[in-house]
Amino acid sequence: MAPSLPIPTELKAIYPPIGMNRKSEVFFLGDDTLPPLYTIIISRTRDAADSHFVLTIGSDDQGESIGHVAKPSRRDPDETKIAALNLTTDKWTATEMTRHQLPGTTRFLFEMIVETEWGMRIEKFEWRPATMGEATSIHPDRLARGFTMVRLGSNFGSNPKRGEMVAMWSVVDSTDEKRKRPFTFRLRGSGASGRLGPDFTIIALMSAIKIYSLDEPLMQAQHSCLVM
Q1: Which of 87-91, 111-115, 116-120, 136-140 has the highest mean pLDDT?
Q2: Cα 64 to Cα 78: distance, rounded to the nearest angstrom
Q3: For residue 130, which phi and psi values (nearest 5 degrees)?
Q4: Burial (Cβ within 10 Å: 0-12, 13-18, ≥19) of residue 98
Q5: From residue 187, how far is each of 19, 23, 165, 203 by CA, in Å?
Q6: How many other C-beta atoms are found inside a 10 Å radius of the C-beta of residue 77?
C-alpha cells in the first residue's frame, strides 16, 4: 500500500554500497526507519544536467512511480519538466523549473497550482542558495551547504523579497568520511503542514533532487558514503 501523502517532513538519502549489483543506479530516501520509504532511480548521462530521475515507492526500483524529473528541454536547456502523481486522484501534475544564472548565484524557479485558503491558484516558488545558518539548521557543520525554497508573493511571509520558506536541503561533503552527511530534504512552514497539497511535496522533493544532481562531484562523493 502506498504511504499517505504528504511525504514525511524530512527525508535522508541512503546510499547503497559501491558496486552493489542492481539493474539501475539508485539511492534511497527514508527517515529514521528501515527499510527506506522511497527509491530514486538515476538514468545518468555524460552530462549530469541531462540525467533523468524517477521516484518510486519502497526500497525496490520496481515500485510504483510517483514522481519524475525529465531531461532538460531541447528548446531551452535551462528548463526541466518535473511531475508528481496524486495518489488520491491518480492524475499527474507537471511543471517546468527554470534555472536563472545571476551574478554570483544561481536560482531555480517554477510555478504550479496549489491549494490555499483562498482556493486553488497558481503560485511561484524559487530555490535559492542556503545561507550558512539555513544549511547548518539541518547539518550543524560549517561545511554544510544546500538550497532553500521560498514561496514568492506569499501572504505568510513578512518580507516579499524573501518569501516564506517552504522547503530546504543540505549536505556536508568532506575528505573526512566521518564528517560527511547525506543529502537531507526538509519541508518547512506551509510545505510541512500539507496546506499546499500533496502534489507540491513531491514536486518540491524532485526539484531538490534535480538541483543536487547538478553538482556532479558532490553527488559522486556523497554516493561513496554509505549511511544506514
Answers
A1: 136-140
A2: 28
A3: -70, 145
A4: middle
A5: 32, 31, 9, 12
A6: 13
In the DSSP assignment, the letter for residue 191 is: H
Beta bridge partners of 92: 85
Per DSSP, what are the bridge partners of residue 165? 150
The identity of residue 22, as a single letter, is: R
Rounded to 5°, angle at Cα 181 from 32 and 214: 110
CA–CA separation, 190 and 174 (whole Å): 33
Residue with cell string 523579497: 161
| DSSP state for residue 50 in the 8-state scheme | G
The 8-class DSSP code of residue 177 comes to G
Cis peptide leading into residue 17 (ω within 30°): no
Res 216: pLDDT: 62
Residue 198 has pLDDT above 90, yes or no: no
pTM of the prediction?
Answer: 0.87
H/E stretch holding 192 reads helix 189-193
Cα 136 from Cα 121, distance rounded (Å): 33
| CA dist., res. 50 & res. 202, Å (int) | 20
Cis peptide preceding 198, ω within 30 of 0 = no
Angle at 32 between CA 42 and CA 64, to 5 degrees: 40
Element (H, E) at 121: strand 119-129
